[in-house]
Amino acid sequence: MVFADKLRRVSELTPDQMRASDADRERVAQVLHNALSEGRITVNELEERLTTVYAAKTLGELKPVTADLPSSSAAVEPATTRALGFPDQRIGGHPGSPVSIGVLSGAVRKGSWVLPPQHNSFAFWGGAEIDLRQARFADRNCTITAVAIMGGIQITVPDDINVDVTGLGLMGGFVLEDKSGAPPAPPTAPTVKINGLAFWGGVVVYRKPAKRSEPPQIES
């Protein structure tokens, strides 16, 4: 009976009364840091507002902090709501090809496919393209090892996953270009680590807005 009463009280809570998570606070903090870099608030205002953010216990307490800033409503939307359909529904499925090789030619992995826990991409006098914006992930943590020798590899990741780029460029480039402008994905999102080597070639990782028009399907 006591448990039932607790459930009833929780169901009666408004969204503003829901407890804020660490991810919610970090999202609001990111909006504040962006506002400082754009000259919308001062350093003193940033410090005052961050104090309020990290002391906030509910989503309602976070809203006034960014009420006069752009994108304030998105900043305080619960992490679980923003991630509806993502990322849990994208994790799982039969892993796709573990390799993509472009030697004097090209290789493409895009659309609806399942990134395996380890994917190796190699380009020699050729190219490879890997697009994860409509992909699923066999595990929550996956790794892409990209090696480009006198060739190029382009990897596109959606802005609602975490990406860690640690590759090495020798007389070439191994870079991450963020074209989304979005804040970091929540810690519960899939994480893709991208390492490898670019020698007289290039590996470019583009972070772009996710394709959310339709849910990804498992490739058979």
Key terms:
six-stranded parallel beta sheet; 32% strand; alpha/beta; five-stranded parallel beta sheet; elongated; single chain; 23% helix; 2 domains; 220 residues; disordered C terminus
Mean pLDDT: 81
Q: Give the low-confidence spans.
A: 79-88, 213-220
End-to-end gap: 47 Å
Question: β content, as a range?
Answer: 25-35%
The computed structural class is alpha/beta
Q: Given the structure, what is the number of helices?
A: 6
Considering DSSP H and I runs of 4 or more, what fraction of the residues is helical? 10-25%
Radius of gyration: 21 Å
Rough outline:
elongated
Largest sheet: 6 strands, parallel
**Strand/helix succession:** HHHHHHEEEEEEEEEEEEE
Quaternary state of this entry equals single chain
Number of domains: 2
